[in-house]
């Protein structure tokens, strides 16, 4: 007679005997591979045997600022109202500056639009944007055309937030090290080519060797698995018993690399540098930092660190920054949280005013209020 199992017994049995075994399997005989093709844009800069190494913390000798932005949109039958905020933290004063601020003052001297408006009446929007825009409200895109709600709120939000963040970066230049949340030169997926090119060109003028990009989410990143070709792929197979091409992301490759090749006590590991060429022959140097939360527990956080100079000291200095429980440098996490809280407060306030004037919010906007 078959023994019946309850829900919890079945779930426990599945996790122990199937799911964890399946996910922990690391084989160089896998069927699915990313093509082993030359990638001229992403190149390892060290010999295979020097690409993976242990590192120790090194203190920053200058002030360190962290910056992040946030944005939200109110959607109604009459159009879209997007708002954006930016927060800057520092190692000496926690929250260094926020924009927009309650008292209207800004240490960085920001005086930029933080609200964007797109009217649903396309005929009237051809004239109205130029009449109703001011220092804090924008109705016209960098492309020279009025914001169009048909392009989606993501497009408007992305442009507004990107411009605000880029302006804040220009104000921080030469003040110390500046940590940017995300790549130094983002892909700006929601922006059209003309707007994207203008923002990237502006960032190229601003960003120098004191700027550091930290990418927190690499579950979809494939820099490593695409660049480890030829002798590098061969070395990983022989040395670490891992074929980079059998992994779907850099995160999965790195976690398997550490778990199956290093022992307790775990030490911070850096993989890199790699060279990524972006627009106008700008070279970005990329390193992956894998750090244990505890030297005696196989639990790690991974950061992709981007700089404009090939200096290993920067990676060691990032290690000296206090991390949160999620593995993000504390001040960067504080900038992220502050920017989100500020945009949430602005969002609720704007919705209150607009609804008092008779604008009914969409279902999306009502959900945003609940989430914020």
TrEMBL record:
Matches recorded under SMART domains: NurA
Family annotation (InterPro entries): NurA_domain
Domain NurA per the UniProt entry, residue ranges: 62-341
Protein name: NurA domain-containing protein
């Amino acid at each position: 007679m078959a023994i019946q199992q309850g829900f919890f017994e079945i779930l426990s049995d599945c996790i122990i005997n199937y799911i964890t075994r399946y996910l922990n399997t690391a084989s160089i005989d896998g069927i699915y591979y990313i093509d082993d093709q030359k990638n001229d844009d992403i190149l390892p800069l060290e010999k295979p045997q020097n690409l993976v190494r242990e590192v120790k913390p090194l203190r920053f000798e200058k002030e360190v600022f962290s910056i992040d932005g946030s944005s939200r949109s109110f959607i109604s039958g009459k159009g879209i109202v997007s708002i954006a905020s930016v927060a800057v933290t520092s190692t000496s004063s926690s929250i260094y500056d926020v924009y927009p601020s309650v008292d209207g003052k800004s240490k960085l001297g920001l005086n930029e639009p933080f609200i964007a408006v797109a009217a649903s009446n396309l005929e009237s929007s051809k004239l109205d944007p130029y009449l109703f825009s001011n220092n804090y409200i924008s109705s016209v895109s960098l492309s020279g055309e009025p914001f169009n709600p048909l392009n989606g709120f993501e497009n408007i939000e992305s442009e507004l937030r990107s411009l605000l963040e880029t302006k804040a970066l220009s104000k921080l230049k030469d003040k110390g090290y500046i940590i940017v949340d995300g790549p130094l030169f983002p892909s700006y997926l929601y922006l059209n080519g003309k707007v994207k090119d203008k923002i990237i060109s502006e960032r190229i003028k601003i960003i120098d060797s004191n700027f550091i990009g930290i990418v927190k989410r690499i579950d979809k990143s494939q820099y490593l698995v695409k660049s480890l070709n030829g002798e590098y792929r061969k070395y990983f197979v022989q040395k670490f018993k891992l074929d980079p091409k059998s992994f779907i992301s850099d995160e999965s490759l790195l976690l398997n690399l550490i778990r199956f090749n290093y022992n307790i006590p775990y030490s911070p590991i850096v993989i890199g540098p790699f060279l990524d060429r972006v627009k106008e022959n700008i070279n970005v140097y990329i390193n992956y930092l894998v750090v244990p939360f505890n030297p005696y527990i196989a639990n790690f956080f991974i950061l992709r660190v981007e700089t404009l100079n090939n200096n290993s000291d920067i990676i060691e200095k990032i290690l000296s920054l206090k991390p949160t429980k999620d593995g993000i440098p504390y001040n960067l996490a504080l900038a992220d949280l502050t920017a989100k809280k500020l945009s949430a407060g602005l969002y609720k306030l704007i919705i209150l005013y607009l609804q008092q004037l008779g604008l009914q919010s969409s279902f999306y906007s009502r959900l945003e209020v609940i989430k914020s």
